[in-house]
Design a protein that fits this description.
The chain contains two helices and eight strands; from the N terminus they run E-H-E-E-E-E-H-E-E-E. By secondary structure, it is α/β, with parallel strands linked by helices. The protein has two domains: 1-65, 2,3-Dihydroxybiphenyl 1,2-Dioxygenase, domain 1 (Roll), CATH 3.10.180; 68-131, Signal recognition particle alu RNA binding heterodimer, srp9/1. It is globular and about 45 Å long.
Length: 131
């Protein structure tokens, strides 16, 4: 049996599929401020969330999977100041913005909203060390 490779992973990318890639890209770039890490032209835009963590926005007409109306994926981004993000996104009027909530068991304070094609995004801040 061949051994599993031991070299460390270099990059993580979660791919989300869109009908309107330019609109999705503008949202993640301009609203969330994620920088473009890899430009795959009209197929995909890969944006950096944090060191080693990326989200890939894919044109569903060109990608390996299809756009789905029912979203079963949530993108979670941990930040240093969840209240500042909440105030900013409330002011610009993002879709389906929840109230701020706190989960003591998980040690987070967070809120959720939807991107232009319905993916849920959670912005959270830890409320305790090690959470």
């Amino acid at each position: 049996m061949t051994d599993r490779p031991s070299a460390p992973h270099e990059l993580a990318i979660t791919f989300l599929y869109y009908r309107d890639l330019p609109r999705a890209y503008a949202f993640y770039r301009d609203v969330l401020g994620l920088p473009l890490a890899i430009d795959q032209g009209d197929l995909a835009k890969i944006l950096r969330i944090a060191p080693g963590a990326h989200v890939g926005l894919v044109d569903e007409a060109k990608g390996m999977n299809n756009w789905q109306a029912e979203k079963c994926v949530q993108l979670c981004i941990r930040v240093a100041d969840v209240q500042a993000w909440y105030d900013y996104l409330a002011e610009i009027g993002v879709d389906h913005l929840s109230q701020m909530f706190q989960n003591e068991k998980l040690g987070i304070r967070a809120f959720v909203f939807r991107d232009p094609e319905g993916y849920q995004i959670e912005i959270q801040q830890t409320t305790r060390a090690g959470a």
